[in-house]
């Protein structure tokens, strides 16, 4: 019993850790900053860290880009336009390092230990300084990450409006805009059964009102996309679940979102972010194929695209490359949450992508897609619990951006080399014959194919040359 109680306490500490900070860490005198009861902060949030610049692959400077050169053109497009990098507000400015087994480990200098509107404004100022020093023009948010939940919907909206007005002011004179916004429909207890799929109609209505407001502020700030991530849209057991009814309700919810988007003149892309499980046992948007099937069934296929997260891909038993290709060939690739998971764990670890091989395969899909604008690469990734220095925020993003940049360079090298493309083309060369074309055009029935099979006799099946394909791929690394 003592063990159970102790574990429960730890879980509660983790859930509340974003509301709590140690007073001793609030206003260190050595940073030249000053805390107050308002959102004012005197001096820089990141003193000693200047604009991050490109120094090339030979640089040993951890606060410099080695592979990401924003203005450099590759395959006819600037690197910054291939990527459209984005910072995730929730991980970068609300991540505490807490987990189910331990309390917060991160106490950023500007935090005052509250979840007040004034503290939210201070975080927003820190966000804009971070973006400018990193040289990134986009950021992503959940509504309740950037402004505190109120006691009523009206109070929550008022809090959000106040912070959004500051963000609008901070945008002036810059290109900084939200890549996408979304509503947080998973943390509050009201959403324990889901939002759009809740068994309570009042919760469904509340979720709709929250999405309405989140979409409005995303539009107001010039956001280019809006995301739906259904962390609670699923079930723990089918014994007490009417799955068909819940799926119908979710479709009605999305239909209403499409209608409201058009009503307010928001031209951004609506995105669904597939994830198989966690926190629910089974989420309804399990993977890209499941999400595509849902959109087709309910006639929404032309209204949405997909936001593919690499760590979610591995949780669903796929590679990120597989999910990107599934989205791409269905015309649904809209955005990428650039992160990765740990092969030794079975949950969403949200680590920064540092595997150059994986990044290369990601960029092969992006190149085939012609880019992903108006989407981009959002770093839905967090520092490890043990990384607690402010500069670690920069180092992590620099590493992630450099990794994806190396992936682009490698993918371009593979494309220009041509050998991998030739190998694939040769493998399917029999389909370039008259019979192959007849089949692909739907002009060959079974009787005709039977006749051809008798003419050909036993077919000769050539090698797939997988090892050669892997050799060519690795030679670009």
Percent of residues in β-strands: 5-15%
Which regions have little confidence, pLDDT < 50, spanning 5+ residues? 1-37
Class from secondary-structure proportions: alpha/beta
| Main sheet: strand order | 7-6-5-14-13-12-10-8
- Please tell me how large the radius of gyration is: 24 Å
Quote the distance from N terminus to C terminus.
Answer: 53 Å
The proportion of residues forming helix, as a percent range, comes to 40-55%
Counted by DSSP, the helix tally is: 17
Largest sheet data: 8 strands, parallel
Number of beta-strand segments: 14
Shape: globular
Average of per-residue pLDDT values: 92
What would you say this structure looks like, in words?
The structure is a single chain. The protein is α/β, with parallel strands linked by helices. 44% of the residues lie in helices and 10% in strands. It has helices spanning 2-16, 79-83, 89-94, 117-134, 143-146, 153-171, 201-220, 243-263, 288-297, 310-315, 320-329, 356-368, 390-417, 419-427, 434-440, 446-456, 466-475, and strands at 53-54, 64-65, 73-74, 77-78, 85-88, 138-142, 177-182, 225-228, 234-235, 269-272, 282-283, 304-309, 333-337, 377-379. It has an eight-stranded parallel β-sheet. Strand 3 (73-74) and strand 4 form a beta hairpin. Helix 6 packs parallel to helix 7 (201-220), helix 7 (201-220) packs parallel to helix 8 (243-263) and helix 11 packs parallel to helix 12. The longest helix is centred in the last third of the chain and has 28 residues, at 390-417. It starts with a helix and ends with a helix. The model is unreliable at 1-37 (pLDDT under 50).
